[in-house]
Amino acid sequence: MAPMAGVTDPIMRELAEDQGADLAFCEMVSAKGLSYANERTEDLLEVGPRERLVGVQLFGHDPAVMADMAQRVVDLLGDTLALIDINMGCPARKIQTKGDGSALMKDPALAARIVEATSQAVSVPVTAKMRRGFYADEETAPELARRLEDAGAWAVTVHGRTAQQMYRGKADWSTIARVKEAVGIPVIGNGDVVNGTSALAMIEQTECDAVMIARAAQGNPWVFADVQAALSGAPAPAAPSPIERIETARKHAHMLSAWEPRALVRMRKQASWYCKGLPGASIARGALNQCVTIDDYDRVFDAIEDHLRSVGQEG
Ligand SMILES: Cc1cc2nc3c(=O)[nH]c(=O)nc-3n(C[C@H](O)[C@H](O)[C@H](O)COP(=O)(O)O)c2cc1C
Questions:
Q1: Which atom of ligand 1 is nearest to the CA of 101?
Q2: What is the DSSP string of 88-157?
Q3: Per residue in 114-155, pLDDT tens?
Q4: Is 227 touching ligand 1 by the criterion CB < 6 Å?
Q5: Is the pLDDT of residue 315 over 80?
Q6: Quick one: CATH architecture of 10-231?
């Protein structure tokens, strides 16, 4: 499961792992924020009670700070840390205008220095996540990936859109294929994988070594069971029933509440993703947006389930 700022909380990661995700990433973490011991930045590094492995993604542009903070993350997370990923893809204005995220695609020499400094500083694998290029229609990912491989990157993830493209259009999977041809390290394909069928199609078209899923995992941990079944040639598992979806949303809310009650406000959007497409979803969204306590969520989930039963849609 991909890193998603404001979304991939520890409980979402645990539920993804329960459904077969091999690795889930935390939200991107500011190396600079960590270096200032910013409490809210450090909170992003908390792991869930059942989490066995997590990928941590750092963003920043100063090689020395990135290397120091990677070491901090290793010290903090110990064996739970699978790898450190460097964000080279975030297109958000407030990130890339500071030289972070996708701005690194415009400066491959600096990007390589960051990977070099970081991989020399830590014992865990260091990876990088990039886009197809920075400017619209530009493809710099294969050349950047080659440089990062030389600098010590253990793997690269490629999202087949440019930074200027943001989320418009379709991800160009042929970029992933060209990166795969350019390097010997593992390549993780990303962009528009929504189920087992599209995961297999990406692997077939690009020969990538793994797939990373972001938006299709929102309110949908079952996507990982679907992908794992497709990868092993097993029949697709049955889609969750509407009641199962609501019960999983309830479980997510209760686990979040037990872990960190302040995180419950973030459950609003998570809950509306679980409800997406269900009868009454738009009414539910309004009610969910008022929820503050776990009891509030329980009341709304009860009401949605009553509604589903009344329209005969529970199964
Ligand atoms: C809400 C949201 C937050 C995201 N935050 C991050 C992030 O913190 N780091 C990152 O590398 N990519 C981030 N992304 C990009 C995703 O990881 C992924 O590359 C992109 O959504 C394409 O994959 P998809 O088609 O499976 O959604 C974010 C995407 C979304 C929708």
A1: 11
A2: E----HHHHTTT-GGGGGG-HHHHHHHHHHHHHH-SS-EEEEEES-SSTT---HHHHHHHHHHHT-SEEE
A3: 999 999 999 999 999 999 999 998 999 999 999 999 999 999
A4: no
A5: no
A6: Alpha-Beta Barrel (3.20)
